[in-house]
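Worked example (supplementary).
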Amino acid sequence: MKRLRLKKRESSRMLLLGPGLILIMFAFFIPMILLFIIGFQTYVPGSGFYDKTFTLENFVRLFDQYHLMILFRTFKIAFLASLLSLVFGYPVAMLLAQSRGKKKSLLLGLILTPLLTNVVARTLGLMIVFATHGPVNTLLGFFGLGPFKFIPGELGIILGLTQVFIPYMILSINSVLENLNFNLQNAARDLGCSHFKAFWRVIFPLSMPGIVAGSLFVFLLSFSSFVTPRLLGGGSIMVMTMLIQQQAMQLLNWPFAAAAAIVLMVFSLILVSTYNRLTARIERMNDRTGIYSSMKFDKGFYRISRA
Amino acid sequence: MIKEAGTGIAVLGSLAKKIFTMLVLIFIILPLPIVIISSFSSSSMIAFPPKEFSLKWYISLASKREYITSFLLSLRIALISVVCSLTFGTMAALAIKRYTYRFPELLKTMFLSPLMVPAVIIGIALMRFMNILGWINSFKAIMVAHLLITMVYVIRTVLSSLVGYDITIEYAARDLGAGPLLTFRKITFPLIKPGLIVAGMFSFIVSLDETTISIFIAGGRTTTLPVRIYSMLEHGLDPTVTAISSLLIVLALCILLLINKVMGLDKFKI
Amino acid sequence: MKRFTVVLLMFLLVGTFVFAAPQTETKTGKIGDGRTLVVGVWGGPQEEIIREHVVKKFEEETGAKVEFVLGGSSDRYARIYSELNNPSMDVVYLSMAQTEQANKDGVILAPNPQRVPEYNNLYPIAKGSGGYGVALMSIGLMYNTDRFKTPPDSWLEMWKPENKGKVAPFVFPGTQGTAFLVMAAKVHGGSETNIAPGFDAIKQLKPFPMILSGIDEMNLAFQQGDIWLAPQMDGYAYNFKDAGGPVDFILPKEGAVLSMNCAAVTKNTKNVDLAEMFINIHLSQDCQEAYAEVLKYGPTNKNVKLSENLGSKVVYGDAAVAKLYALDNASVTKNQSAWADRWNKEILEK
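After joint prediction of all chains, the assembly is encoded as:
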């Protein structure tokens, strides 16, 4: 009887899982495995075809000075974008955590609208904002500064990524701050701390989990973004994702593009698992201390690289 | 005396903080109004602020058929994605939740793994695979890519709305003689409905917004709107894109208002 | 539940709109009924003139619709290789070098004089590429007239110290980029087979105000005085001049580069008939004249007669073609990947 039931459950499980499983196999795992294989094959110059001989040459080439520089730059841009998001995003997150009602909805609306807007439309806005003779430079001109060359350039990419991904940072910090008791800050002030000291000694350390999670997440997103660096860099600032696209789409060197993709994936998987472990630890900490009540992190299964 | 000076600094500090916060908020939202304002410019070079205003680019948009075709294509893909991924995703999420006696974590990780891989990599992998199948540039290729991405979202959202869900309720219903469909309709569905609404809206947005993967596998007759705008931006600025981008921004605003209406913004999670 | 119903209804509404839309086509009994021809071409003035002089007539004659895929020719070139089995475009516009290579590799169809009668009226050079030559151009120097009271006459003007920081190269790979790289090599003692002097010379031009890739941004930069000198095609330069830009164009004394745009039908397309009709209209006298008048592109059709004034500006006739330098396209194509690598490393990076 019991075995029969188990068998029935097994078949209905397969029935439920089936379509999804087929889709994910077909659209994800098989292509990824093929990509992995191509990374070890040989490129034939001057044609769109490749040779099936096994080689490690693609990976060796990836670790020459130039490509290491690109990898370093990709890291640098991602790091600076997360740093800027943190500096810019923290006060907004504070404001958001402390507001209620209509004000809160308005703030959330402001933060979420760019996130819901098509990334290309947003980038177009950034291209106009940061143009050599655009509004930002005009404004700076009034103060006798500039004009700065934001785009095409690294500075433009960093500012652009910050603009695109700062909502994630704000929401991440907010999810911690929201559950903090701001009376703690008042208590500290009553005990004689200055306003700033009360914040720096009490609130800031307690919001650390949100900061770390947010930073890591913005780093991950910036690290693997393609559209923003491509459009704001004007095609002349090479990052890893652009290298992959150029090799695959313009030079038809698929083996090398695949190898670069594999390397990029290894790095992002390392980052993702760090993030997952971190958020899991925060949750455990949460259980122990109870300071962070009912905080929910989604364990890193966010979508990477929407931009 | 000392205390007063302290308050002075504190007031100054909080004022500075307020101004800084305002500036950041402007920085976050600024690109959107700027696109909309530029779209009413009459100059053939995108510039801000526009010297004269006109509806020229909206009229030119109407005469450029490919923008409209692309927009309709994107809408169609988004709608199909919502319907199919809600169905397949919910089924898979229920299966993962219901039958956890064998490798539950492995199954979950497997289904959610596309989220952890950068879109460029999924794009190039799919491009090679679709090339081998001879599917490149076909509607089905784009559909498959969008379904993959949206289904994963649905699974994630439904799984998180199933946290704390007691599976024995279902067994109880079954023991009382309800069929599997009736059980779903009466017991499971009401429980996961809020999650499904979020998942559905989210799939719609994600599909409409998907650019990076589509750049690799879309082309010609199957160019989705973001890909078309992207390739326009790549090769110099045609002011027509400001018009179509403005429309997309307005669409995003509508979606935002809808979300606010249906569930409240503070419950919305990315 | 009510709100849920509202959302559901909205979806249905949008859904019906989306799915109903494509079925409103009218039947006219023409060959292209309900069919779409996808054409890959450069954006901007070229797109506009093709819309005006080719598409209108084509849609009228065939009943088919035309959609454009806009972009640079290197993107299209890569695409026709990677999509050989299922091309996304029916007609592609390519550079001369790309057409030659694509023809050699069999990814485009050979010209078909029977279905494209205008092919017989083309100059020999326009027949030689393996596709249909549609326009002849020269790549020379575009300069800022505010800055140069007497026009420069040499590529070497770019390397004069007083112009440092105001000279912009074109992105490689690309038509102007390739021509400039080769000419930079030639005026510094190199050639297509010895490209190193070209890279060294372009490196000396740093810092660049920008690396050019689009026409609009380039014109804007000239307008603002950010750029004084840049390699460019005659047509684009004259176009901007006519629009009031502070620029002019010269053919440098060391030689300007011959460039030709070609149209081709992709292999394996299902719309060969429509594609060939489209190209035939493009090669016809009316369209070629408009091309010369509006874009300042030289005609490839022998029957096109231009006024003396216009004829002196555009690449017009066999004699004008003979004066220009034709690149060794075989070497260029063979080395493209290696040069792109070098360009990334030496030109794009500090």
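Two points are worth noting when inspecting this output. The two ends of chain C are 62 Å apart (CA to CA). Chain C touches chain A through 27 residues (CB under 8 Å).
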